[in-house]
Design goal:
The chain is built from twelve helices and 14 strands. It is of the alpha/beta class. The strands form three sheets. It has a seven-stranded mixed β-sheet with strand order 3-4-5-6-9-10-14, sandwiched between helices. Pfam families: Peptidase_S41 (PF03572), Tricorn_C1 (PF14684).
């Protein structure tokens, strides 16, 4: 009986030890750092195109983490390491206390163009185009995702704030293309567009295609090695819908054009009648996946690799404009859109996508 009691007590103590050990493990800063580094090591898809030595970053930042490292210090160390990835899809968040980090180049660009983050937020909440540029009523559709109007008697303007709902978008875009069918030129604006569903971007781009053209490939990770990728999936832009608009198109982009908006830009840039005007896009093309550290902090990482039709990965750089023009802080303060004004001038000058050398493979 005594032996049985001792055995039960011993098992009980082992269980308690396991519980407390596990609790200690979950709060151990070294274990959380190791977990984050290892998950990125086996799952992050962009070490090679970005030429990042992940092992070197481990040697730099791992010694900074000790059993005495506080949560604030750990969050800062992890953030500094992830900053090196220059990837807006890489995030780190904690709830208690609330902290949020996002890798990428956007913060500096915000301050340069808008002066303060508050000005930038106000810019995003405003209508996509100042009323002084609009000749007729600004039409808004699909929960105000789509906005379109006439800038002159024969130049149309079409803005969309995100890519959502394939079937609904297809139906509405067909109506918008029909609305502009007699336009001399069309300005498509994907500034202030954070992305969404790439399939919606293809649906829209297809309405402006003259023939089938390769514009993008996507490769998913297939193993833990930095170079382990599945075979590429090829994406084509091709004529679809009752009407295709193939008159001159100016696509407006800047650093607020992210993710699916950038992949849409990849589709539009292979069209011979389209010209990209503005600034480099955000440089975050890939799909992101979220996960959680043992201590409860959330993180996200890019899990596949996007390339253009020529096999170039623009991650961390962004789609380059054919003609680079950037609104200054003074322009923003004075409600002037220098980029839009130039686009109108370009169409009036008779430009037909001839502002760039096309190196695009058509068909297959």
């Amino acid at each position: 009986m005594i032996n049985e009691y001792i055995s039960v007590s011993f098992i009980y103590l082992l269980c308690l030890f396991a519980v407390f050990s596990n609790a200690q493990e979950l709060s151990d800063p070294e274990k959380n750092f190791e977990y984050l580094w290892k998950e990125f090591d086996r799952r992050y898809a962009l070490f090679l195109p970005k030429r990042i030595d992940w092992n070197l970053l481990y040697r730099v930042y791992r010694p900074k983490v000790t059993p005495q490292t506080s949560d604030d210090e750990l969050f800062e160390i992890m953030s500094k390491m992830l900053t090196r990835l220059n990837d807006l899809h890489v995030r780190l968040d904690s709830k208690n206390p609330p902290r949020s980090f996002r890798s990428g180049k956007s913060h500096e660009a915000v301050l340069q163009q808008f002066g303060t983050v508050e000005n930038f937020i106000r810019y995003f909440k405003e209508r996509p185009i100042d009323k002084k540029y609009v000749k007729t009523e600004l039409h808004e559709r699909h929960e105000n995702i789509f906005a379109y109007t006439w800038l002159t008697d024969d130049i149309g303007y079409f803005h969309f704030s995100k890519f959502s709902g394939v079937e609904k978008s297809s139906e509405i875009v067909d109506e918008i293309v029909d609305y502009f069918k007699n336009a001399k030129g069309l300005i498509i604006d994907v500034r202030r567009n954070g992305g969404g569903d790439d399939k919606v971007g293809k649906v829209i781009a297809d309405r402006f295609a003259d023939e089938k053209r390769l514009y993008m490939t996507i490769q998913a990770k297939s193993g833990p090695g930095h170079g382990d990728f599945a075979e590429p999936v090829r994406w084509y832009v091709e004529p679809d819908g009752p009407i295709q608009f193939t008159n001159p198109i100016i696509l407006l982009t800047d650093f607020t054009s992210g993710s699916a908006a950038e992949n849409f830009a990849l589709a539009m840039r292979v069209l011979p009648h389209a010209t990209i005007v503005g600034d480099f896009t955000a440089g975050c093309f890939a799909d992101a996946e979220a996960d959680k550290l043992p201590n409860g902090w959330y993180f996200s990482l890019s899990i596949n690799m996007f390339k253009d039709q020529n096999g170039i990965c623009w991650e961390g750089i962004g789609v380059p404009p054919d003609l680079r023009i950037v609104n200054t802080k003074e322009d923003v303060d004075n409600c002037r859109d220098r980029v839009l004004e130039f686009a109108v001038e370009l169409i009036n000058s008779g430009a037909r996508g001839g502002q760039k050398k096309k190196e695009n493979g058509s068909n297959s």
